[in-house]
Amino acid sequence: MLQLAVLISGRGSNMVKLAEAIETDQLDARIAIVISNQHCAGLAHAVNLGIETKVIERRNFTTRQAHDAAIQDAITSSSADYVFLAGYMAILGAEFTKAFAGKLINIHPSLLPEFKGLDTHQRAIDAQARQHGATVHLVTAELDDGPIILQAELSILPDDDADRLAARVLQLEHHLYPFVLKCLCEGHLTLAADQVNWHSPDLALQSLSADRRLIKALKWPKR
To answer: SS3 for 71-121, per residue?
Structure first.
């Protein structure tokens, strides 16, 4: 059984979707701990799901490295096999990302490498981009720059503003992130430091037969 640590900073909606997928799809996985860098709504959701939670606030540490080390210790104590970032709004240092190389996964609200960082939806609109979406990727020391695991895209509509576009992308995220977890659990996907290996994407897609919206939206990484 895969043991997961999930890092959040806000409402934790992607964390909830991962937990729901584990139960609904009977995935061989368990969220061992949810860690936040601040008190937030997502912690209450985790408690309601029966998941252990821990708040590790940056203000209680003199350096970012010390803060990262405390988070690393909590993850290690949970025996997590993978760390899923789900709206974790803090930059993790090089030592942390190195410690979890190949096991640290993030979901970002853009089609990387486009629109790294914040305010991705408004920036996509301002750039008159036709397509937008979400990217699941391995986390490295460089911000939003790790190897792409999988993407899902949608068309930007003429009446989209940043809020409407954000809501539509979030719906994609809620399907995309659990699908990546499912593929990890079922062996269709393996990860290593700076390396993404899809072994049987066709078999993975068979489990999505009822989710035609996501099937049409998927963008597989270049091999």
So the answer is: HHHHHHHCCCCEEEECCCCCCCCHHHHHHCCCCEEEEECCCCCCCCCCCHH
Distance of CA 111 to the CA centre of its chain: 14
**CA count, 13 A, side-chain hemisphere, 167:** 5
136-146: string of b/e by CB count within 10 Å (b at 16+)? Answer: bbbbbeeebeb
Strand order in the sheet with 218-219: 53-55, 29-36, 2-8, 82-85, 104-108, 131-138, 148-155, 218-219
Query: 73: which residues sit within 8 A by CB, 6+ positions away?
Result: none
Q: Which of 45, 108, 175, 188 is catalytic?
A: 108
What lies within 8 Å, CB to CB, of 74 at 6+ separation is: 5, 33, 35, 54, 56
Task: Give yes or no: 137 in active site.
Answer: no
Q: Which two tokens stand for residue 85?
A: 């970032």
- Give the fold, CATH level 3, of 2-219: Rossmann fold (3.40.50)
Quick count: other Cβ atoms within 10 Å of Cβ 197? 11
Residues 152, 110: contact at Cβ < 8 Å?
no
Residue ranges, the chain, pLDDT below 70: 209-210, 223
> What would the pLDDT profile of 109-138 be if each residue is shown by its tens digit?
999 999 999 999 999 999 999 999 999 999
pTM greater than 0.85 (yes/no): yes
Residues 33 and 53 sit within 8 Å (Cβ to Cβ) = yes
- Alpha carbons 177 and 146: distance in angstroms, whole number: 16
